[in-house]
């Protein structure tokens, strides 16, 4: 159960008040199973607007009408033992995931919202090392169709990520991640937003009703430090995420009457600190995140859904969590921007 008040930023008039009060619910039902040593899979049913891929929240509205339940995930995963114990000789693990699945790569909500589940195929090759410092090297690739049509060319997201894990002393772990997201033919996203068949984030990228001013080839770099402090209940996490759209404003040549677009508005930043945990009864967590997203830095249809605007925005996020019981959590989040 969730309550969301909004203050400021709206038109000051009797017909458009400067505040909003929105109660919401979220329901998820998960099933996961292993069919054999090599095959596993599962599915998730979730509440929410079926036209909104970045939120499972369902607003209390529509005159007490029944609320939809959707297929949120449905996937298979293949981990070939003949390859992992044969060609890789137990030094690595290869797996393939197909369907509509949870993220196979590491990211923050700067680029993709936590509630979005991509669909397509992904491959992961991970190596573990006994080195006291360098612990893991992982390669992830993914091919994700997001607009398949019979009347023209399809739209795909192709991408990949290199992941590393390091042990920097007895109390510090570091994760380094470099990825690239190549959106091929993203304009159908904008057309769907205008037609109302893709809801969620309101567009803030430079665009006409059917075309973006930019193409989107996003370089995504993340560094994360995890510290073991004086108490196991008070871990400290520091994280920085930088994203750069290497193709900002490069779609203008395909637009008859192009909108204004500044190619320097291509950078996004996410700086986060979290202290505490939310695993056991009585746990407390505090956090702060600074978020700055320039107008063309990311494709705004798919990133953090709780921001005032998906791009062309800066935001301070404050969060507090209390684990009242093992399975009951209270969270307060404030977004100021």
Written account of the structure:
There is one protein chain. With 337 residues, this protein is mainly β. Helices cover 5% and strands 49% of the residues. The protein has two helices and 17 strands. The chain has helices at 81-87, 187-195, and strands spanning 2-7, 19-25, 28-34, 39-47, 58-59, 69-78, 92-100, 119-128, 134-147, 155-167, 172-184, 216-227, 236-245, 267-276, 284-293, 313-325, 328-336. The chain has a 14-stranded antiparallel sheet, covered by helices on one side. The longest helix has 9 residues, at 187-195. It is globular, with a radius of gyration of 21 Å. The model has no long low-confidence stretch (mean pLDDT 95).
Q: How would you spell out the order of helices and strands?
A: EEEEEEHEEEEEHEEEEEE
What low-confidence regions span 5 or more consecutive residues with pLDDT below 50? none
- Percent of residues in β-strands: over 45%
Q: Structural class, from helix and strand content?
A: mainly beta
In short:
The protein has helices at residues 81-87, 187-195; strands at residues 2-7, 19-25, 28-34, 39-47, 58-59, 69-78, 92-100, 119-128, 134-147, 155-167, 172-184, 216-227, 236-245, 267-276, 284-293, 313-325, 328-336.
Which tags fit this structure?
337 residues, mainly beta, 14-stranded antiparallel sheet, 3-stranded antiparallel sheet, globular, 2 helices
Secondary-structure map with pairings?
Elements: E1 2-7, E2 19-25, E3 28-34, E4 39-47, E5 58-59, E6 69-78, H1 81-87, E7 92-100, E8 119-128, E9 134-147, E10 155-167, E11 172-184, H2 187-195, E12 216-227, E13 236-245, E14 267-276, E15 284-293, E16 313-325, E17 328-336
Antiparallel strand pairs: 1-2, 2-5, 3-4, 4-6, 6-7, 7-8, 8-9, 9-10, 10-11, 11-12, 12-13, 13-14, 14-15, 15-16, 16-17
């Amino acid at each position: 159960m969730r309550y969301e008040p909004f203050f400021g930023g709206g038109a000051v008039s009797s017909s458009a008040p400067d505040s909003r009060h929105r109660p919401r619910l979220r329901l998820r039902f998960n099933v996961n199973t292993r069919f054999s040593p090599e095959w596993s899979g599962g599915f998730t049913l979730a509440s929410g607007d079926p036209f909104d891929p970045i939120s499972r929240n369902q607003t209390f509205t529509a005159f007490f009408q029944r609320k939809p339940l959707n297929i949120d995930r449905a996937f298979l995963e293949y981990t070939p033992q003949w390859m992992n114990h044969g060609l890789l000789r137990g030094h690595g693990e290869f797996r393939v995931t197909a369907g509509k699945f949870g993220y196979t790569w590491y990211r923050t909500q700067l680029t993709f919202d936590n509630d979005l589940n991509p669909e397509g195929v992904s491959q992961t090759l991970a190596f573990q090392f006994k080195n006291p410092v360098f612990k893991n090297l992982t390669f992830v690739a993914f091919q994700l169709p997001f607009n398949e049509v019979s009347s023209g060319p399809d739209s795909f997201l192709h991408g990949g990520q290199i992941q590393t894990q390091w042990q920097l002393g007895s109390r510090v772990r570091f994760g380094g991640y470099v990825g690239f997201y190549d959106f091929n033919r993203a304009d159908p996203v904008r057309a769907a937003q205008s037609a109302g068949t893709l809801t969620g984030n309101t567009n803030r990228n430079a665009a006409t009703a059917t075309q973006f001013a930019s193409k989107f080839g996003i370089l995504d770099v993340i560094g994360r430090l995890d510290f073991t402090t004086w108490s196991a209940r008070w871990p400290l996490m520091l994280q920085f995420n930088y994203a750069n759209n290497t193709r900002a404003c490069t779609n203008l040549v395909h637009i008859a009457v192009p909108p204004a677009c500044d190619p320097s508005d291509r950078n996004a930043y996410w700086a986060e600190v979290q202290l505490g945990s939310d695993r056991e009864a009585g746990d407390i967590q505090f956090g702060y995140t600074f978020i700055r997203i320039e107008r063309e830095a990311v494709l705004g249809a798919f990133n953090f859904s709780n921001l005032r605007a998906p791009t062309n925005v800066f935001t301070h996020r404050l969060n507090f969590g209390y684990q009242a019981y093992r399975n009951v959590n209270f969270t307060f989040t404030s977004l100021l921007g």
